[in-house]
Amino acid sequence: MSDLPTTLPVLQKLIEFDTTSRNSNLECIQWIEARLSEAGALSTRVPSADGTKTNLFATIGPTVPGGVILSGHSDVVPVDDQAWSSDPWVMTERDGKLFGRGTCDMKGFLALVLAFAPLFSRGPKPVHFAVSYDEEVGCQGAPAMIERMAAEIPAPRAAIIGEPSLMRVIDGHKGITVHEVRVRGQEAHSSLPHLGLSANLVAVELMAKLSRIARELEEIGTPDNGFEPAHTTLTIGTMQGGTAANILAGHAGFAFDLRCPPGSDAEAILAPFFLLAERLDAEIRARFPDCGIEVIRRSSAPPLTPHGNEAAVELVRKLTGENAPACKVSFAAEAGQFREAGFPTVICGPGSIEQAHQPDEWIALEQLEKGALFMERLAQELAA
Residues 33, 105, 134, 135: which is the catalytic one? Predict the structure, then answer.
């Protein structure tokens, strides 16, 4: 039977692949595909439009209903400008913790899945493995894979998304919408502002509007819904613009994300911002036809709601032995996309989201041990 010592070399290998979202994941997927093939899995790739990345889904066992989907993403966030105590691409053990980019989010779960694949191959019910790309940049890669899975695999009992949850049952997460804003201004000497248009000043006005919306969302509040924070959140993640202090900025840009609990209307929340952007764009183009504002929606992923996931929650409760109410999380994930496709879905995986995306990202060995026990119980459940 596979156990934790079998899992650790798999995790070590996965960490060695620099699958930061800006990079290709093909080398990592090829390795995963080969390992699943050794366990008897039949795999299907669902590549990106340019072919530089790919999703992978695979099935071990008979093509019958009642199996389980085990899903995780292959990409990780950047390590740029982070102060690491050790090489982020080499798994390092210290004080009962494993350090390395992706140990927690979420290659630890993928390592467990791969280590236990041979055990799953002996059961009468299938296990479907799903590995996506570009989850960390707005859950962009998974939809095409999920669509193929919904059309091709027999109806599973549950889809388990292994995001870090301390092996607790998670039945809800917020949705996310990410927008990029580009402003084109008219450069001129800063002593003659009437001859040009500062893209930076336009961007600041737009960001100020978003800031006011964010404060209003916090002030309005939300009834206790299990999320922390409970209200819809709006943040500006990046911004750039201008070339020198004495030149009116010719270009400026920023990106923001909106995270809504189930029931919130993202379009209605952002409507005042878009009205301002349209008005400013018209005013700019009246003076400088080649200038203006462009707002691009980069990604959008739905929230996960408890409704329809009762069977998945019941199964995972049985496997973890957890009796506490299911939790909700404010981060976005692919679970909402699986649920939207009709799969009963729940989040449950090793590690804490508090350790994700940080310098010296880590996962506790104790969490991987809990994950291994979960996989053993899952194999027993599918064999029953």
Answer: 135
